[in-house]
Amino acid sequence: MKTLYLDCFSGISGNMLLGALLHVGLPEEVLRKNLSLLPVHGYDLIVTKVNKCGISAIYVDVKLNDDDHHDADHHHGHHHHRHLSDVFQIIDDSQLSSKIKTDSKKIFLLLAQAEAKVHGVGVEEIHFHEVGAVDSIVDIVGTAIGLDYLGIQAIYTSALQVGKGFIKCAHGLMPIPAPATAELLKNIPYYNGEMSKELVTPTGAAVIAALSAGHGNMPANFLSETIGYGAGTWDLEIPNVLRMHVGEIKEERIITKAFVVEANIDDLNPQIYPYVMEKLLNMDVFDVWLTPIIMKKNRSATMLSVLVNDSMLDQVIKLIFEQTSTIGLRFYETERKIAMREIIDVKLPWGKVKVKVSAYEGKICSITPEYEDCKIIADEYKIPLKKVQQTALETASIIIKKDAIPEN
């Protein structure tokens, strides 16, 4: 499983992530080409090689062009006054892949929720300030582009050094970590350290909160294959860099902790369930399902079940209470055992599709062509979807046998 491990001994920010992704193999031209698909202009992406306490790293800076910026933002509102819906619209209006869009929106959603909780207002009342500005859109979407290009399937992080002291902002002096950052770092281990600087930004914290699978230590059986460094802005006594390891988790059977959340519901309009399920899946829960049940007095009802990691548990519970009619739910810890998964590109006569190959105890147990890739080809070439899927399956099987991967 292609895995990213982030060593955050000097914090993490959006531009540190971008720099590290470029250092480990994301081509700069790929990043620029994909960012150009966003309906956002009036900025220059400056990429430079720097040295931080003897470590060579890549520093990424987003320079706003004030002359062009006003016109570029005309359709989406001034960048200091963007709401979550404005940012989502910018992402949705692009031609980026669905995975990049989903990951980007997930990160921005957590940012908005954290800011809303800190200020005691609704999510859509939040004015994003610098979080909704062009530089943060570039940092967040750029990170999603890099993860997609590198084929990252899981992200793990060390404990984060956040810095100590106070930072000056629009509301006055705020303790480090800033309130929104602290909100995002719930259930994520961090420490202050000795640096009197803000080392973890809300953007960096939101990426970890939204996308990482585990925190605190390098995962067991992780083999680091490539290491890169993304530079931060500060010049400190320690290297102000994010160390990024790209590698593989070779373990055949991965057991992870998760929570099952359940609610028995007998008075909800059935039209609401697909809406709630979509919202939950957009939060990157592991699974959502419905079960028909019979409750007391022989009433027909539905049990809504969600499988989720610990960092998203509170948000899932909140959404269920907000969006359904339940007045109570239960949750309990469970274990997940998952097969190893690898995504391979398969070339068909009509184009490329991604195929997920799953293996358990050294044997292939599932070969699944990506539905969306097959659907695009079927629509474009006017051929049956089942024919595209079957061709992808047969071609993938040949590739697997050629590479001598044992099949069941």
Automatic annotation (TrEMBL):
GO terms for molecular function: lyase activity; nickel cation binding. It catalyses: Ni(II)-pyridinium-3,5-bisthiocarboxylate mononucleotide = pyridinium-3,5-bisthiocarboxylate mononucleotide + Ni(2+). Its EC number is 4.99.1.12. GO terms for biological process: protein maturation. Keywords: Lyase, Nickel. Involved in the biosynthesis of a nickel-pincer cofactor ((SCS)Ni(II) pincer complex). Binds Ni(2+), and functions in nickel delivery to pyridinium-3,5-bisthiocarboxylic acid mononucleotide (P2TMN), to form the mature cofactor. Is thus probably required for the activation of nickel-pincer cofactor-dependent enzymes. NCBIfam families: nickel pincer cofactor biosynthesis protein LarC. Belongs to the LarC family. PANTHER family: NICKEL INSERTION PROTEIN-RELATED, PYRIDINIUM-3,5-BISTHIOCARBOXYLIC ACID MONONUCLEOTIDE NICKEL INSERTION PROTEIN. This is Pyridinium-3,5-bisthiocarboxylic acid mononucleotide nickel insertion protein. It comes from Pelosinus fermentans B4. The gene is larC.
